[in-house]
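Sequence in, structure out.
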Amino acid sequence: MTQLQAIGTKVVVKKTHTEAKSKGGLILAHSEDPNPLAEIISIGADIKDAKFAAGDQAYISWPNTAKAGDYFIVDYASIFAICKND
């Protein structure tokens, strides 16, 4: 298995899939969250004082990504918020 290592100010992420539910709690088939979270996989060496680490969940700007297999490469500035792991 190939593992990607981010370079420069880039971050490698992987989408985390969540199930969409109706207001009544039913799981909706074949639906995708328009703003899915992404798991941080690796962080480029030029990112100093990152407020996140590998394994954290992030909200990112999906239009600004490059797809690489099951992973996505984003610029540091495309990360809007982090959900820290406890």
